[in-house]
Design brief:
The chain is α+β, with helices and mostly antiparallel strands. The protein is 48% helix and 14% strand.
Amino acid sequence: MIKIPEATILFLITLLSSVECNDVASATGRLKDIFKLDLQLVRNLDVLSVQLEGLQNRITQLRSHKIEPLSETLGIDTNNEEVFKHPTNQLAIIKRFQDKWKTINETLDFQHVQMTVKYFMDEFSKQEAMSRDAIAGVIRLGETYNIPAKNFTDGTIGKFQSKLKFNKLQDIHAIGLAALKLDKVSACIEYFELLEQTILARKKAFGSTNACADGSKCQTDLELNTILGSAYANHHYCEYFSENYEKSILLAKKALQLTGPNERIQKNINLMTIYRQNLSENEHQNLSNAMKSSIEEKPQTILCRSGAFPGSSNKAGSELISRTKGFKIWEKCKYSNNWNPSLMIQPVKTEVLLEEPYMEFWHQFLTDEEIERLKELGLPELEKSGVAGDDYYQFVDSRVSQSGWLPDSRDPVVAATSLRMHQMTNLSMETAEQLQIANYGVGGLYNQHYDFLTDPSKHPKEFFQLYHRVATVLMYLSDVELGGTTAFIKAGVNVKPEKGGAVFWYNLRRDGSGDMDTLHAACPVLVGVKWVANKWIKYAGQEFVYPCLA
């Protein structure tokens, strides 16, 4: 074996570690890093080739791949921010990167090279995890917004069309398989049905030829049957888990016809046949009713969907109207200086959203220059977001984003933002938490939660006073084309992200108890890039400005 000089390995490790792409699926701000790393790896394949000249066969294999930067392969202008807004583009970029370097890694089957490539895989939290998280995001979007599978694979969502597509047979199979592993039964069924329909339509159109509609080389009939057999096999599990035994048995038999004998599938057929025979007609009906009740949509989902598609049914909307109809127009929308001398010349355009819980929206609260500076400062600080547990900070599927913290001392813009919030609320920022910058990724969301401590009995009084949040300011650093609203579940309010705007609300009532009507969620981002900044204002330090809390 030819040994690669240590200097070369160290150079590559330094190169790879210089590009931070960890957990790119949970923050769109990280997607550009994929292209940076990809370009640097492409440029340095020649360096590896020179060091490995003695193994001509592997070099020939390596050079047989048409290896060019991913941006050229996909025809992507990485400076065009619009590309990164569509979920199909986001998923395709991540998956194409994974597929490309997986192939090259298999070709570069050398001890030292594998150690180097493994290093960059670890930096990406493993390629499979990166792709899995992106696919999970797309499945989440389909569930929340009721978007058909074909719309995602073809990249058509409302009036938004993606530049890339994710409609290769292997792509659709990957989503269906991921849905099965994630116990997303409905999505699993939908994507495998789409895959089966696509294959059967292709077989009907082209027979046993290996031509595709665009004239390019496509799978042979044998290859199509192999994929179809796998689709039937996996699909039968989805139907089994949904307790649709009749269809599951039919799919399992189709799988056996294409794949040949399979002991596990045959056992499933025998088992489901017994289940089916033992179910009475009433039990079938009860099972059907149970399945329907299990997929009833949650209030959060209904409200999120109405925020993205206003024409959809929204019972919460009527509640919102009844809550706000008592306002006179000049009371609801006004220029506010909050009797603060600093805001007399340049008051803030304020819209009252609710009286209880009290909620305001501040239009044009931040300038474009301030927004760009906050994003510039926040991007290097982004890490996977977590939530506060009983004893530690933990990562959960209910929050998919990346976030980082900026103290007021970090930059004059951060300090000025805190000062302006103080001027608008009269609340002290001395004890407030640092400004949190957050960026949402593919299907990024934060499920319903409260910003205050819901069970004070779990915490000593000192902890309660220091960490209880009396109010929240949520600033939007970007517009979002579809989805991504802030949904106040019990209050029936959907706040659409507006670049430069901010929503302010009190988490506590005047007696210091938590206001349960402030239950809210960050709805999944369907199309667009969502950046926000949060300021959580603490209970402690408000004794003079909010005396009833003392």
